[in-house]
Write a structure and sequence with these properties.
- There is one protein chain.
- It is built from two helices and four strands.
- With about 90 residues, it is an alpha+beta fold.
- A four-stranded antiparallel beta sheet has the order 1-2-3-4, with no helix packed on it.
- Strand 1 and strand 2 form a beta hairpin.
Length: about 90
Amino acid sequence: MRGRLLPRPGFVLYDLTVEEDPAYGAEPLLHATKVVASIRLLSLWRGRLEISEVSVDEASLNLVRMPEGRWNLESLLQTAATKAGQPA
C-alpha cells in the first residue's frame, strides 16, 4: 500500500487479493494487480473517510452461485452495508 497526494489524495494497493469463503470454493473472490482509491477531501473535515473514486487494473472477479440460489458476493455486501450503517 502506498499513499499519494497528487493528482488527488488517496492510496494505491498493489497485488490485492480478497479470499473466498471456503463454502463457495478455493479460488480468490477478487484479485487485482493495482487498485487506486481517491479520498473525498471535504469528508475529512466532517471526521469521515469517504472514497470518491476507485479504479482497478487487471481485475479477476469469481462469481459463484450455490444450488440454493445464494451468491458468494451476498455475505460480503451484507457485511459492508452493516458496517456502513454503524457510527465510525
